[in-house]
Amino acid sequence: MMVLIILTAAGILAMFASVFNGRSVVLPVSLSGLFAAGYFALLEWNTNTTYFEAMRMDNFAIAFTVVCLFAAFVFLLLYHYMHYSSDVHYAEVISIILFSLAGVVVMVSFTSMLMLFLGIEILSLSLYILAGLKKKDLLSNEASLKYLLMGAFATGFLLFGIAMLYGATGSFMLSDIAYYLGLHKAVAEPFIVTGIIMLMIGLLFKVAAAPFHFWTPDVYQGAPTLVTGYMATVGKVAAFAALVRVFQLGFSPALETYQFLFAAVAVTTMFIGNITALYQKSVKRMLAYSSISHAGYMLIALMAANEVTNGAVLFYSIAYTLASLLAFAVVAILQQKSGSDEVSVFNGLSKSSPLMSITFAVAMLSLAGIPPTAGFFAKFYVFSAAISDGWVWITVLAIINSFISVYYYFAPVIASYMKKGNEEGIVLATPVKVLLAIIALLTLLIGLLPGSLSYLI
Amino acid sequence: MTAVAWLIPLLPLLGFIINGLGFPKLNKKVAAIIGCGSVLASFAIVCSLFLQSLQTPLNHRIDLYTWIAAGNYTVSFALLIDNLSVIMMMIVTGVGFLIHVYSIGYMKEDEGFGKFFAYLNLFIFFMLLLVMGASFVIMFIGWEGVGLCSYLLIGFWWKNREYSAAANKAFIMNRIGDLGFILAIFMMFAVFGSSDFDKVFPAASAFTTNDSIIIAITLLLFVGAIGKSAQLPLFTWLPDAMAGPTPVSALIHAATMVTAGVYMVARSNILYSIAPVTLAVITVLGTITALFAALIALTQNDIKKVLAYSTVSQLGFMFVALGTSSFDAGIFHVMTHAFFKALLFLGAGSVIHAMSGEQNIRHMGGLKKALPITSFTFLIGTLAISGIPPFAGFFSKDAILTASYFNSTIIFLLLILTSVLTAAYMFRLYFMVFWGDFRGTHHQEEHLHESPQSITIPLIVLALFAAIGGFFGLPEIFGNHNWIHHYLSPVFSQNTRIMAHADSVMIEWLLVAFSLVVIVPVMWLAYQRYALKTVKVTLSEEQLPFWYKLSLHKFYVDELYDYGIVKPLSALAGLFSVAVEKKMIDGTVNGLGSITLFLSSQLRKIQTGNTGFYVFAMVAGMVLMLLFALAKLNVF
């Protein structure tokens, strides 16, 4: 609860600070808000504190909260150093980020479906605004509007599903629903099945799984690149945590009614994401498709639904978040410099900025799942979760997809090392350099010592 | 002190990182201080562990973290501190430190100075990991790591094509052995569910003697040892490895890395005790290698090649010790060998240094005047390796000979013969280099000089140990307390095969008498032939007797491998490259690639940008999902 209060208060403070000409205090306030929130979240480790029978800060919730706080921290620093002097809405953006984190906390800790809905909406509304941040840019406007429109549609599905489940079981509480499902063996009731599927679609939309992913490339491309990075990390990880939570806590007795659907969606998502990514010239759009395909891999862990699922999803989220943050940060910096996000802006990057080219290479290796990066073990745990449940065919398909992905992940890396380009040095602010280096090192470190993380929750 | 034992491998690793990143900006002095200092610090910690182990035997497992967890299998990154690993750590860091110091002087002029120290530190790190690992997997990391460093350092002067070829040869031959090792690890996971020493060994004790699974595992492990420790048939890489700078030959290819195979077999002694068949294989192979390499060493003219073949031969002795289940004698010989062979190599380096890079002993001679310290310490090394009492080699070789005597008379006699040959080729080397007249060029003669202190001090320290190192394992008849036997007994005590040390007084005295009666005349012969008579500078092939040519050409093993294995394999590879690779594999891969790209070009068309279509897709998806789910429930 403290976490929510702190994040909201920091958001409000940041917003008011700009009104009273206190632009310079915005970053310190918001960063200390993030750290305080992280601290109070970690205080509740192993306590399982329940709030109003609607939220429970269990280890799962805390771990995902911290991952998202970290991503937001990276976003804030990058945003500060790239836009502090140029953006009129500097303070507003930061406060919206803090508000969106409040939504994230609710999304990863809910025990009632109403809270799930609230959390998703708090986060989504913030993201709709952020996507349209560049008011005079047509693509940004399009992104915002499309996201809102499609998001509204998805919310409809979600609410419809919640309503049907409420109708069938008489409760919003996940524990009540699980009890009902277990007691009545009611998995065969069309009401329940329809409710579960509707709710599933609402959430699959948020994690950008096929065929509910169509908004993703357009929105990711149109939104300002840093915001895209935020959406692709925090937005996706929080939605995934919500998906795991609602199905594990609420619907697991009805596993066989939805397991094969997850399998089908996972396979479709992986193939659509990876294959479409091959033909993209824009790195940003390529990353959008890549993020779609990663939703597919993560769905495999969810589908396996065994005791390692949570650990595998958390590990995957961390690896994916770190790598995506790096990738989007580099693309954002290059885009700000050159005004383009085509692969060709990477030409000669190894000369003009060795740090950016090496960190970007680490990010791509991790996303492609190549050891010794975190991405390798992320895929490893997901696949082993699937195999231990006998899902060999889906693992084979996932591995084929990993092969395909190597092609497009390496295109910018090859460009930065093999092709000649502008060799004029790119100057980066020291904190940005440190940040890039730290994230890249973390990616390698987790890849070298994966053991402890996978058993965290 | 065990609490900080993790620092022991970490410090050289840090040295590697600093020197590696700092190269070439870091100046040579700083690089040398970091390189030597990190190993010295590790050595200090090891020393305190050693002192502790003298009071009470250590047996301490340190679990640093869970490295890999997959289902029921977990690999913990764990270190094992027991008396065996401590004694190996003493050798690695102690001798390693001396060789680091030596390298300051030896590599002074080299532009890759910082890189050299970075590689040396990395080597020490991996070697420590190898001897400290508490499971075969961790040992394997070190095993592969030292192989890598060996490759990097053999090819240190990579601009010379022959040197990089030698590096490749070492790497590839080791790879053959490593395959055996890793298969053994897989088998252990399959059979015991773990590769941790404290799980595998107790579990193995339940198997009956000569159980086929244990025989398979031990043989596969031994294949790994054959590669790393240069035994027949995988020994030809070691003489070629002399392409590396001399400190590398001393550290990696004499004192430490090549003895990793011996350590590994000694560490797994419980497994081997269940498989007497494997032990017999080891004994026979070790004996043949020892004899074979000694025969080749007799006629070689390159100072480092003689020492390289002698290393192969001495490693053969160590394996005989293991094969006859006297593991402590094997480790004892590892230790004394580390002293005297490192000494000999470093002495050779000092000679090469003085001779402006010349390695052919037929061009040397009479160097004892110009190089008094080198000459004297080299003599001690030669006495030690030849097994003259009371120098170090006598006691360790004596222990092995005694063990082999109780095992098989033929093995014993062959080893005795090898010992005689050892004295012969070593004294031939010594007299040819340091006695007689100088046979080099005038230019070389003018430049003859004793090496600087950073080279001579390590020589003197090592000479001291080569002289007295044998007293660590004094046989019972001399002092009634064989220290190393008792020190290592906790590690080998569970081994049921080790015989109650039936020290036969007669055998011991016989050996002492033998070394005086046979080896001293051999020395005399060598003196007559190579110190008093003029040595020919060049040999004319036609006049040589058949056996001499055979030995000079190393029994044509390299040629045999070339014609028997390398050429047919590369012909086969050529065939595959054209028929299979280009046509089948490339065709398939490129074909698959184009299909995928085509799919991609089609799939991207459905991303129309039209929101109406997006909503339609969502609804279509929903309908499909509902249909499938409800159909499964037989609602319709």
Characterization of this structure:
The complex is a heterodimer of chains A (457) and B (636). With 457 residues, chain A is mainly α. Chain A has a domain at 255-457. Chain A has a two-stranded antiparallel sheet with strand order 1-2. Helices cover 78% and strands 1% of the residues of chain A. Chain B has 636 residues and is mainly α. Chain B has a domain at 558-632. Chain B contains 26 helices and 2 strands. The interface between A and B is large, with 46 and 37 residues.
What are the segments of chain A in which pLDDT stays under 50 over at least 5 consecutive residues?
none
β-sheet strand percentage of chain A: under 5%
| Average pLDDT for all residues of chain B | 84
Annotation, overall tally of beta strands of chain A: 2
Shape label of chain B:
globular
The strand order across the widest sheet of chain B is 1-2
Give the ordered list of helices and strands of chain B. Answer: HHEEHHHHHHHHHHHHHHHHHHHHHHHH
Distance between the termini of chain B: 74 Å
The chain pair with the largest interface is: A-B, 46 and 37 residues
